[in-house]
Amino acid sequence: METLIWDGISMIAPEVLDILRQESAFITSPIHGIKHWRTVERNGHYLANFNGADKAVLSYFAYFHDCMRENEHRDKGHGPRGAVFAMKHRDIIPLNDVQFKQLTDACKGHTYGTRPECITINTCWDADRLDLGRVGIDPDASYLHDVEAKRIADEFDFEKLINFKVKDESRQGIQKVVFDLDNTLICEKGESVRQGMFALLDSLKLNGIEMSIWTASTRERAEPIIDKLFLSGYFSDVVYRDDYDPDATWGRTQPKDIRYSNGDLLVDDSKKHIEFVESIGLKGFCITPYISYIDTNLDEIEQLHQLILPKVKFKLKRENQLLKTIKRLFSKNKPVPKWIEC
Ligand SMILES: [Fe+2]
Question: What pTM was computed for the model?
């Protein structure tokens, strides 16, 4: 199995990380150190998108559960010692009392405890077990609690975890937007980008919004189009049909489940996909299909910007109506004469 590599941010308060650096003898351990803690945090946040576990508790569990180890092997007391260490530093751990109890219970029982009712504690333990690949053990679904965790183990689908990035849960509002490609970003022929779209993407990028593409097109078709139309620089990742629904047929595709991408909002011209993301408690923006020979409704792009960045002003320039008509007439045969453009 491929070693799970951490990529992304952490939700741990800097002062807690300082204490761990000073007092944990295992922070640099390649097996039970910070690399493992970050992977457990990432796994936990991924699972929480599906089961609603508390992400703040998951983050602190990830950093505390192994921090008081005394050896790399059978260290029976390391979980309870991790809990005691958390209690010693209670004042700098920004969890409420219920969350803190879940954290210490999860630490105490993570090696020998019996499964409790609590979804957050169960998810802590699953997140830890899903990183067994680092020591050459394939996680066994029968020792996991969460449905999605079991699916990953059964299908050996660790790629989903590897591609997942933790995001800053303390930030309010939309942080990651997932765009459909055909008829949303680009026209039906794959030859042009929707009018006003580059201005929108520029503003979102400038304001720290992460973006990705989720397309029902195959990688073979979509990848060259994304490059040719200068879109690739805006997006942190692309999900192609090959990645989520290789057996898709015309008009019948799997829903775009943006929890896998840690997305907050899906922008798509398909009502079906929008209804799906709304049904799982996320946001959707149904955009009018972009067709090359029909003018884009720029109001729609401005409304989308307003939804994502309500405090940032954004106004698109409208083309002169007369010039637009002349362009359309000329475009059939030859370019518009320079003297009209001016
Ligand atoms: Fe662990």
Answer: 0.84
Distance in Å, CA 148 to ligand 1 centroid:
19
Distance 21 CA to ligand 1 centre (A): 17
**How far away, in angstroms, is 66 Cα from ligand 1 center?**
6
- pLDDT tens digits, 287-319: 999 998 888 889 999 999 999 999 999 999 887
- Residues with a beta carbon under 5 angstroms from ion ligand 1: 66, 128
110 in the same domain as 38? yes
Q: At what angle do helices 55-64 and 14-23 cross, to 10 degrees?
A: 20
Q: What is the CATH number of the domain that holds 186?
A: 3.40.50.1000
pLDDT in tens, 219-249: 999 999 999 999 999 999 999 999 888 888 7
DSSP string computed for 41-70: HHHHHHHHHHH---HHHHHHHHHHTTTT-S
Q: How far is the CA of 29 from the centre of ligand 1 (A)?
A: 11
